[in-house]
Task: structure prediction
Amino acid sequence: MGWSALDKRFMRRAIRLASRGEGNVSPNPLVGAVVVKGGRVIGEGWHEKFGGPHAEANALRGIDAQGATIYVTLEPCCPSVPGKKTPACTPLIIRSGIARVAIGTRDLHPHVSGIEQLRSSGIRVEEGLLRTEARRLNEPSIVFHKSGRAFCIAKMAQSADGFIGIRGKRRVWLSGRKFDRLSQRMRNRYDAILVGINTVLVDNPRLTCRMKNGRNPARIILDDCLRIPIDAKALSNAKEEKVIIATSEQAGMEKARLLRKMGAEVLVMGKRQAGLKRLLYHLPKLGIISVLIEGGAQVISSALEEGVVDKAVVAVSAKKIEGKGAIASPFSAAILKKFAKRRMGADTVYEGYLTSYSK
Result:
């Protein structure tokens, strides 16, 4: 249908509001809502934290919405959704006197039928307003409801000549400050960060979020033989924050018991090696529906081969890596050519989708 410039303006506002919930609402979706009456915004809100009021409830609180339009990024929830922690939104919208509901995208949750319930009550409902942008807010829940596994996004920085580092050396810094800020925002947004054991052994990263007021993601380490040192920084507060080590049946059980005693969860995900696909299907049982893979090249290459990378974000620096032992990026020029690109400071950032689930 034809949307007016005002419709798009108000939905863009709802989308910006929804993004304020990043890092605080998962596994619930990000949702924003704007209430408009007589061409003027009279209420707005977003889903601020898991277990708290939904965007529609926050937007409608304390206002006279009789005859108004509510712009909401995602189809409102309804009483038929099992295990709800808050009151459903559709009865609230109906009671408020809202005359029109403009929706960004449908909710893929199998028990949500908010659009049908609103229409059956006589409210005018229109859907698909800025649908692409609205869906982008909730790629993890879309992939989860379509596939049953966690959404997987790979992030990497590489040199202009297609390398990511030098074998045996600590991390070579390639990306600029703007991309690094994006990296921290991604750590805040997604449920977990995943690296391979080689990254831990070489760089000994903390895998935390350094964004102001950011939330640390769960830390996942693929370690087939449990080679992780017990003094690794990633294990430093395993009793307070979720640390998962995915391993194989060939790992030593004594080391596994020690790691569990330290607070880490040790998951056996294969006979000879930890299967990434198997892990991604298991993680939603632990409340994790999105995983950010940050390295290294071997882990991302395996994920690409298994077909589980839904989205990739790659920064290409103007710098070059010269010398023996240069490690090639798993993202070839042929792959990057298919992605959208934009300038981000000194870097060129490529972003694209690799599975049908994420489209």
In short: The radius of gyration is 22 Å. The chain has two domains: 5-138, 148-353. The domain at 148-353 is CATH 3.40.430.10 (Dihydrofolate Reductase, subunit A).
